[in-house]
Amino acid sequence: MAFSDRKSLIPSYLYSTTSANSSKNLSSAFDNHDNMDKKNLLIAAPKEGSGYKVEMYSPAFYAASTIGGILSCGLTHTAVTPLDLVKCNMQIDPAKFKSISSGFGILLKEQGIRGLFRGWAPTLLGYSAQGACKYGFYEYFKKYYSDLAGAENAVKYKTLIYLAGSASAEVIADVALCPFEAVKVRVQTQPGFARGLSDGLPKFVKAEGAAGLYKGIVPLWGRQIPYTMMKFASFETIVEQLYKHAIPTPKDQCSNTTQLGVSFAGGYLAGILCAVVSHPADNLVSFLNNAKGATVGDAVNKLGVWGLCTRGLPLRIFMIGTLTGAQWGIYDSFKVFVGLPTTGGAAPPAQK
């Protein structure tokens, strides 16, 4: 495919440059990229000659991160809706849904194949909104905290910066997710409550008021903030170690395929850690959103501490590991597509 044809696939704001002259002569700049000023603050995609370039930490960079987050979270969470449906029902009614296999069997018998995707609409919209904020704000806060720390401390305390940046981003992301998550759980665990988001949202608001949509915000933060801190900090660390010890070629010399494979592997391993850390709060979210007027104390009394930590955990490890690996693969694939390096493994050139 000719470059002019490929360029038309990407919105113009995703490959804008810093100067007015360069934006007016974008095509010639790409055709003559070998002759570009060495001081230009643009970073090429890992594969030389791909042509696309996006300025790091520019509005276009954050726009690309936001779109990548929408694609990575919205699509993956929707794809695993059947697993999420079984997990939620195992958490809410363990006497009936005793195992993964029996859970699928019960849902297929009672609701049919179509019923396995119950709640897909609030899942798609909710996690797309969450992904936009999660990835977009993570990139922003990571840069912001690095600047506050200074160059030397940013390297020395990089893991703390990953943790702080991801936690800050997730606080915002959960505000976007919470109303959709509340409706999703109710639709998935109470057959007959609603067909989906369109009738479930007004029915939920009528029953519990608009404030009821945020009844689970605190346990949602309790689930998602540790999850996201582990997801981003462990991913960055795992990827760095893979390039350091397992990949014989420096990252900037690796093919796009190799780099994206590292992203998926790092994401999968990070996802396993995420599932274990955030699982007790995940059980709480499901319990509180399913029962009107329920409290955290009610959940602890009914499920017990051990139940909060382990109920539905094997399925969630499989689901979150696969989910997180796929998310990092999609996110970094989109970054490469628009002309950005993959995440982690090597710090980009310093911005001057």
Number of strands: 2
| Terminal CA distance | 35 Å
Order of helices and strands: HHHEEHHHHHHHHHHH
Proportion of residues in helical segments: over 70%
Descriptors:
single chain, Mitochondrial carrier fold, 352 residues, mainly alpha, 2 domains, globular, transport
Give me a quick take on this structure.
The chain has 352 residues and is an all-alpha fold. Helices cover 71% and strands 2% of the residues.
Describe the structure.
- Solcar repeats lie at residues 60-144, 157-241.
- It is globular, with a radius of gyration of 22 Å.
- A hairpin with an 8-residue loop joins strand 1 (42-44) and strand 2.
- Helix content is 71%, strand content 2%.
- Helix 9 (158-189) packs across helix 11.
- It has 14 helices and two strands; from the N terminus they run H-H-H-E-E-H-H-H-H-H-H-H-H-H-H-H.
How are the SSEs placed, and which strands pair?
Layout: H1 3-7, H2 20-24, H3 26-31, E1 42-44, E2 53-55, H4 59-79, H5 81-92, H6 100-115, H7 120-149, H8 151-156, H9 158-189, H10 197-208, H11 217-246, H12 256-290, H13 296-310, H14 313-338
Antiparallel strand pairs: 1-2
Helix pairs in contact: 4-7, 4-14, 5-6, 7-9, 9-10, 9-11, 11-12, 12-13, 12-14
Family: Belongs to the mitochondrial carrier (TC 2.A.29) family.
GO biological process, one term: mitochondrial phosphate ion transmembrane transport
Function: Transport of phosphate groups from the cytosol to the mitochondrial matrix. Mediates salt stress tolerance through an ATP-dependent pathway and via modulation of the gibberellin metabolism.
